[in-house]
Amino acid sequence: MDTITTPGGWGASYDRMSPALRARCDADNRDYLRELAADNQRRRAVAGTAEEQAIRAAMLLAEQQGAVVNPAEVWRTGGAAVGRTKAEALSYYSAVQDLEDTRARRQEEEARAEAQRYHAALQDVQDPRSGRTKAEALRYFSAVQDLEDTRRGREILTADAPDVPAPARYDTSWVQQAKARRDARTGRAR
After folding, report:
1. Residues with Cβ within 8 Å of residue 84, at least 6 apart in sequence
2. Which residue has the higher pLDDT, 142 or 168?
């Protein structure tokens, strides 16, 4: 069986190219390398500017925090003389992450507790003795406790200052009159 081979791609057949095509490929390669060098130079310039700005910001921040900053030392060390060391940065960001984890865990626990309260309320049954559900009884008890606390608070306040006048009652008759006019106008009867 005979094998037929055809050259494919440019890698192996560079020596088989015509001189005009080889010259065009070489010119394209030179253009690509020139563009690559220009891009690398621009990246280095941007990186140098960004590093310089970061060092200046670190020196300014250190001065604002009250640290003594020697600019010659900072520039000589490339900014290593100010700011956090790698170990300090790791411990700081670890502490920040721990704080965020704690907050997230607390929020999850609160959501879980809220869901449990919600499901408990859905499964609430009516107490045959009082005619109230457990949730209603709990709300009633809580309201009674609030009233007791308010009464005790007033007693404490008025015990220290007996000459404080009682709160004035407001005349709300105008509200009833306005509702009666509205009902008459709309044809509602109460």
Report:
1. 92
2. 142
